C-alpha cells in the first residue's frame, strides 16, 4: 500500500510539473511577441492565413467633394492584382510584372499599405520599429502608446520614409504621422477610425486630418476566406 501511495504521489508530481512547464511555455511565447506582432494580432493578423481574396476601394474626399476611387481585387496567395478606376481596368501578376505595370503597382502598394498597415509591421522585415513609449497624439491630444516605423534608404518605391504610430492599450492604431524621407517635419497626420471587422480582420475605414475636411477612406471592402 505504501508503495502504491508513493507511485501515485510521483504521478501527481510529474503531472503538476508538466502543467507548470506548459503554462510557462505559453507565457514565454506571449512574452516573445514583438510590439509589431502585438499590434498586427490586435487587428486580426492571425486570421490572415485563411484569406484568399481582398477587395476594396481607396479614395480621398475633400470637404463635400468625393474623390475618384481606385478599386482593387487582390489574391494574396497567388499575388495577383486587378485595378479598376473610371478610365481603365488592369490585371497583372506581381511576380511577372513588366514596365507597363509599375505605376499601377505603386498605387497598389500605397493603397494596400493604408488598408493593412498593422500587418505591414510584420511583413516589412527590412523596416525597423523603435521601442514602445508614450506621447500625446497630435490630433486627439490624448496620451497614447507610440512607436516609430522607419524604412531603409534603399529598396521599395518610397525608400527612407518614417511613421510615428500611436496606438491604445488594446494595440489598436488610433493615429499616425507620416514623414516622407524621414524628415523631421510631418508630411501628413491622420486618424485611424471607424473600425470594422471583416471575417476577423479589423480595418480602420476612415483616416481624417485635423478639422475633418479631408478623409482618406475605404469602401466596398470584402475579405474572402478559404473554403
Quick recap of the structure?
The protein is of the alpha+beta class and 227 residues long.
What does this structure look like?
- With 227 residues, the protein is an alpha+beta fold.
- Helix content is 26%, strand content 37%.
- The chain contains four helices and 13 strands.
- It has a seven-stranded antiparallel beta sheet with strand order 4-3-2-1-13-12-11, with helices on one face. Strands 5, 6, 7, 8, 9 and 10 form a six-stranded antiparallel beta sheet that branches.
- Helix 2 runs antiparallel to helix 4.
- It is globular and about 45 Å long.
- The chain starts with a helix and ends with a strand.
- The N terminus is likely disordered.
Whole-angstrom Rg = 23 Å
Helical/strand content category: alpha+beta
SSE succession: HHEEEEHHEEEEEEEEE
The CA-CA distance between the termini, in Å, is 57 Å
Protein name: Selenophosphate synthetase
Keywords for this entry:
seven-stranded antiparallel beta sheet; alpha+beta; globular; six-stranded antiparallel beta sheet; 227 residues
Give the SSE map.
Blueprint: H1 2-32, H2 35-42, E1 51-62, E2 70-75, E3 80-84, E4 89-93, H3 102-115, H4 117-123, E5 128-129, E6 133-136, E7 143-150, E8 162-167, E9 173-179, E10 188-191, E11 193-198, E12 201-208, E13 214-225
Antiparallel strand pairs: 1-2, 1-13, 2-3, 3-4, 5-7, 6-7, 7-8, 8-9, 9-10, 11-12, 12-13
Amino acid at each position: 500500500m505504501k508503495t502504491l501511495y508513493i507511485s501515485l504521489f510521483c504521478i501527481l508530481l510529474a503531472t503538476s510539473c508538466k502543467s507548470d512547464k506548459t503554462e510557462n511555455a505559453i507565457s514565454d511565447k506571449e512574452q516573445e511577441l514583438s510590439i509589431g506582432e502585438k499590434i498586427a494580432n490586435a487587428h486580426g493578423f492571425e486570421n490572415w492565413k485563411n484569406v484568399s481574396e481582398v477587395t476594396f476601394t481607396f479614395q480621398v474626399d475633400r470637404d463635400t467633394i468625393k474623390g475618384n476611387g481606385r478599386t482593387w481585387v487582390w489574391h494574396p496567395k497567388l499575388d495577383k492584382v486587378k485595378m479598376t478606376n473610371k478610365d481603365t481596368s488592369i490585371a497583372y501578376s506581381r511576380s511577372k510584372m513588366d514596365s507597363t505595370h509599375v505605376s499601377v503597382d505603386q498605387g497598389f502598394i500605397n493603397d494596400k499599405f493604408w488598408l493593412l498597415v498593422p500587418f505591414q509591421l510584420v511583413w516589412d522585415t527590412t523596416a525597423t520599429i523603435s521601442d514602445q513609449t508614450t506621447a500625446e497624439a497630435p490630433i486627439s491630444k490624448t496620451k497614447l502608446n507610440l512607436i516609430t516605423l522607419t524604412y531603409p534608404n534603399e529598396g521599395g518605391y518610397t525608400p527612407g520614409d518614417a511613421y510615428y504610430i500611436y496606438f491604445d492599450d488594446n494595440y489598436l492604431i488610433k493615429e499616425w504621422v507620416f514623414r516622407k524621407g524621414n524628415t523631421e517635419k510631418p508630411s501628413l497626420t491622420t486618424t485611424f477610425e471607424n473600425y470594422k471587422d471583416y471575417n476577423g480582420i479589423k480595418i480602420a475605414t476612415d483616416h481624417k486630418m485635423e478639422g475633418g475636411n479631408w478623409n482618406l477612406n475605404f469602401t466596398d471592402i470584402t475579405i474572402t476566406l478559404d473554403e
